[in-house]
Amino acid sequence: MIEYAEAGPEVRAVFDDIMATRQTDWINNFWKALAHDPPTLQRTWGSVKQIMAPGALDPLTKEMVYLAVSASNQCPYCIASHTAAARKAGMSDAMFAELMAVVGMANETNRLASGYQVEIDGRFRPI
Amino acid sequence: MIEYAEAGPEVRAVFDDIMATRQTDWINNFWKALAHDPPTLQRTWGSVKQIMAPGALDPLTKEMVYLAVSASNQCPYCIASHTAAARKAGMSDAMFAELMAVVGMANETNRLASGYQVEIDGRFRPI
Amino acid sequence: MIEYAEAGPEVRAVFDDIMATRQTDWINNFWKALAHDPPTLQRTWGSVKQIMAPGALDPLTKEMVYLAVSASNQCPYCIASHTAAARKAGMSDAMFAELMAVVGMANETNRLASGYQVEIDGRFRPI
Amino acid sequence: MIEYAEAGPEVRAVFDDIMATRQTDWINNFWKALAHDPPTLQRTWGSVKQIMAPGALDPLTKEMVYLAVSASNQCPYCIASHTAAARKAGMSDAMFAELMAVVGMANETNRLASGYQVEIDGRFRPI
Amino acid sequence: MIEYAEAGPEVRAVFDDIMATRQTDWINNFWKALAHDPPTLQRTWGSVKQIMAPGALDPLTKEMVYLAVSASNQCPYCIASHTAAARKAGMSDAMFAELMAVVGMANETNRLASGYQVEIDGRFRPI
Amino acid sequence: MIEYAEAGPEVRAVFDDIMATRQTDWINNFWKALAHDPPTLQRTWGSVKQIMAPGALDPLTKEMVYLAVSASNQCPYCIASHTAAARKAGMSDAMFAELMAVVGMANETNRLASGYQVEIDGRFRPI
Question: Which residue of D has its CA nearest to A105?
Answer without folding.
Answer: D44
